[in-house]
Structures are given as C-alpha cells and as structure tokens.
Amino acid sequence: MTKSYFPKNFLWGGAIAANQAEGAWNIDGKGMSVADVAQYKPNVDPKDYVSQWHVSPTQIQKAMQTDDTTYYPKRHGIDFYHRYKEDLALFSKMGMKCLRVSIAWTRLFPTGTESTPNANGIAFYRNLFKEMNRLGIEPLVTLAHYEMPLYLVNHYDGWVSREVVDLFIRFCRVCFQEFNPYVHYWLTFNEIDSVFRHPFTTVGVVEEKYANKKEAEQAIYQALHHQFLASALATKELRKVDSTAKIGCMMTKTLAYPLTPNPEDALLAQQYNRNNYFYADVQVFGAYPQYMKNYFNSHDIHVQMHQGDEEILKQYTVDFVSFSYYMTMVKSIDEDHMEKVGGNLTTSVKNPYLETSDWGWQVDPVGLRISLIDIYDRYHLPVFIVENGIGAKDTFVDGTVHDDYRIKYFSDHFKQVNLAIRDGVDVMGFTTWGCIDIISASTSQISKRYGFVYVDLDDLGRGTYDRYPKDSYYWYKRVIETNGASLYEDSKVAAAGSLKS
Questions:
Q1: Which of 57, 113, 403, 482 has its CA 20 to 30 A from that of 500?
Q2: d(CA 72, CA 250)
C-alpha cells in the first residue's frame, strides 16, 4: 500500500477571491470593479463559456446605473467582509494551514487613481490578516484576481494603457508596506493566461471598442505585456520591503492530450500546451520565448515596449510557480466532427476515459500528477496548487450536505499529488478552490458549489447566509491532521463511488 509522503510543512488549505466572497460592494469607500458588472445569467448554457464571460459596453453602462444585487451576485458574495471571523474560525477548526485570498484593488483605491489609499480598506485587510495569523493560518495573497477598478476600464482602456502599470504598482507598494508583517506569500496575477478567454475580466479590454478582431488581439497582447511588466515591478517592490517574502506567478494548467497516435494530433496537443506555458515562461525565465516573437512577426502584432522593459523582466523573476487545475483537454485534427465537452475554461473533444462534472469539466486526477511533473521539470522552482475543486449541485438535508462525491474527488487528486512528490516534485501546498461556497467566477451563481462549508444562499441571493460544515469538512480535517496519511485509511472514500451526476 502506498504511504503518505507529504512534507511536514506542507500548506494544506483553501482558496477564495475577494470579488466572489466579500460582498459589501459599495460600502466603506469601495469603488466599482469589473466583478460588479458580472451578471447571473440563468438562461445561458453553463457550458457556454463565451456567453458566460462576455461583457459589452451596453452591459457596463447598465451595471453602472443600478444598485441591484440580485442579478449581480458578486456584489453580495457570501458577506465574507462582515463574517470573516466566523469563517476563519471554521477553517481553524478544520486545521487549515493556509488560506488563499485576494485584495480588492477598489477597496484600497476606489477608482485606481487616488494618491492615498482608503483607510477603511487598509483596516479591513490588516484585521483579516492579523486574525489569520492569530489562528495559525498562513495567508497566500493574490494582488490581482479579476478585480480591476471599473474606472480604469472606462477611462484608460484597462491594461492597454501604460499608465495602469504605475497605478497598479502604487497599489502593490501600499499592500507590501501595510501587510508585510502578516503576509509571507504573494501572487501577482490570477490566471494571467486568461486574457483571451475573458479579456474584459482579466485586463479590462472591451472588444467592441476595437474595429475588428485583429485590433482587439493587438490590444490584448499589449495589455498582457503591461501585466508581465507589472508582475516584475511588483516583485522588485516586495524585495525592497522584505527580501525573505516569496512571490509567485499563477497560471491555469490546461493540459492537452492527443486523441490518437496520429502525429498531427500529437502536434496539436504540443502546440496547445506550449501556448499554455508561454505566460509562466515570461515570468520565470524573464523573457518572451522565440516562438511567440515569431508569432508576433508573422501576424503583424506590435507590442510596444519601452527601453528597459526587457531588462526589468529579466531581473525580477518569480520565486515559485502556482497554478489552477480543473480539467484536461483532448486535441484532434478531426475535432470539428466530434462530441465536445466544456466548462468556463474552454471546450474540448470528449475524453472517453474520463467522467465529467455537472458543468462539463473532465475530471482527471492523473492529469494533475502529469502537470506537476511537467511544470517542475520545466521551471525547477517550487510548485503550488492554488486552485482545484469540483463544482456540484449539493443537496442540503438535516443541516448538512452528504458529499461523498467531493470526498472522492479530492482523495483521488491528493493521492496523485502524493505520487508527484514521490516522483521528486517540490510541492509547497494545495489550496482547494472555494473551500466555503462562494459565487462562481463564470456563471455568477452559488448553486455551483465547491466548498467544504455550505452557505445558505440561493442564486437570487435569498437565504440566511448561515454556514454549515458538510461531510467533506470533517474528512478534510482528518486529512490535514494526519498530513495525508488518512487518504490511505479512510474506508468512506473507497465506498464513495463515482462522481455525483
């Protein structure tokens, strides 16, 4: 029988984002962010990720003219802003070692352009981090998690503007100076590779403002360059404040397999995976890879760089690589004629060897092991899994949720991490996504539940907001307290059966 082999200092934990959890969208001086424009769209196919994410100029104007929270659920979240002590107490009782959170830019700088930060925002995050420290929960803090000030979208065209780099670095400088005593692990941009999946949410690009698809692509790559530059400059600022603190990049790991041994299928999968790595390559190696330079030349894309940009990228690279992992893809030269599955990442040819979740995600624990090995072998830096989980339609009965399907999901994935560590991968920790039910990033609904803790709230914002531990809460508590050894003892996992459909 395989034995648990997790390091003694392994950071078992959970992850949430400010825009999906905090709520309190317009109090204590907070300004509007891109998340406050995200609508719950009950009539959109949850597997249609393009419709889920797209935001038009008309939708922006409509959102700015209403205080509605029913169809803008991220505005109320799960009220973590007022209930964080209650939630942290639950996480502490679980034994959580680490909690990934983000700092809402607009809570510190409502429009992003202010010269001094909002004192209420500073106080909230200082109190949050102090409470985490008191409970022995290590903060892992994301500086930019789909929370760009809406003002910068409307007046600066988002990250397309070079000026936004300076505004963001001012925000980062305040974060480092104010919160450094409590925070030792930082991430720059959440899923920086998502610029083409949802450019409005990621970099504030409103595609309709551009004359054609080519101009929009040019703008997105320009915005991406500014984020690369900002990541390097944020790293520089952190090291001024604390040379012992660690800062990492964060990517979406979307591993692709070839459908068949056909070399053309293998080439498609390789190209897909290579493009996925591009975003971390720049932040780890400090330079654009040659294949991307070739792509820019062949597609007449001109990314404007100021003198010294390349030197900054090279000098201030990250300390570790973090990533989200939810599903794997399949590539085929004949995919136009094949059955597809999809989530809020992308669509893919259906893999006949894998089950799919309620939202069309192909569940692949072994793919996590493959991804860990590939990332570590490529970068030779510590690796941190900062998002992974299963969105499911939980049934709340008698004060709890009997979620054996979630227990099985995490047991299978944790075991593959264990095997990757045995393969020699330096894994820092694992923060499960949505450790407490939060508003979904893509569909803006809460009925797509990820948490170990159930929140009494429905998709239209109705409910008490009360918290209830699920069966998986107690199971994960046991995993943490045994440092993974219980994964090989728990008979409940063996009996859990297949994923809930």
A1: 482
A2: 27
Residue 290 CA to residue 297 CA, distance in Å, equals 11
| 134-168 pLDDT, tens digit each | 999 999 999 999 999 999 999 999 999 999 999 99
Q: Contacts from 114-122 at CB under 8 Å and sequence distance 24+?
A: 117/171, 117/174, 117/178, 118/28, 118/29, 118/30, 120/28, 120/29, 121/28, 121/29, 121/30, 122/174, 122/178
Which tokens go with 311?
């030197």
What 3-state DSSP class applies to 370? Answer: helix
Determine phi and psi for 6, rounding to 5 degrees.
Answer: -100, 140
Whether 85 and 464 have beta carbons less than 8 Å apart is answered as: no
Phi-psi region of 251 (alpha: psi -120 to 50; beta: other; left: phi over 0): beta
The tokens for 244 are 């012992």
User: Measured between alpha carbons, how far is 104 from 115 in angstroms, rounded to an integer?
Assistant: 17
Q: Does the reported pTM lie above 0.90? A: yes
Q: pLDDT (tens digit, 9 = 90+) per residue, 70-96?
A: 999 999 999 999 999 999 999 999 999
For the record, the structure tokens of 249 come out as 């990049």
User: Which residue, 319, 397, 426, is CA-closest to 10?
Assistant: 426
Fill in the DSSP letter of residue 377: H
To the query of whether residue 387 is one of the catalytic residues in this protein, the response is yes
Six token digits for residue 282:
């720049």
Our CA angle for 311, 197, 294, nearest 5°, is 45
- 204: region left, alpha or beta (phi > 0 left; psi from -120 to 50 alpha): left
Asked if 490 and 475 touch (Cβ cutoff 8 Å), the reply is: yes
CA dist 306 and 351 (Å) reads 45
The total of other beta-carbon atoms located within 10 Å of residue 74's CB is: 29
CA-to-CA distance for 256 and 496, rounded, in angstroms?
28
- The secondary element (H helix, E strand) that includes residue 220 is helix 213-241
CB 49 within 8 A of CB 346: yes
**Domain coordinates of the chain in residue numbers?**
11-494
**In sequence order, what DSSP letters do the residues of 193-209 get, joined into one string?**
GGGTT-HHHHH---GGG
The span from the CA of 349 to the CA of 330, in Å, is: 5
Can you give the C-alpha Rg of the chain in angstroms?
21
The CATH number of the structural domain formed by 11-494 is: 3.20.20.80
Count Cβ atoms below 10 Å from residue 399 Cβ, excluding itself.
9
Which residues of the chain are modeled with pLDDT < 50? 1, 344, 493-501
Find out whether 391 and 46 touch, Cβ atoms under 8 Å: no
Tokens coding 164: 């936004």
DSSP 8-state secondary structure symbol assigned to residue 449: B
Query: Tell me: the pLDDT tens digits for 442-473?
Result: 889 999 999 999 999 999 999 999 999 999 99
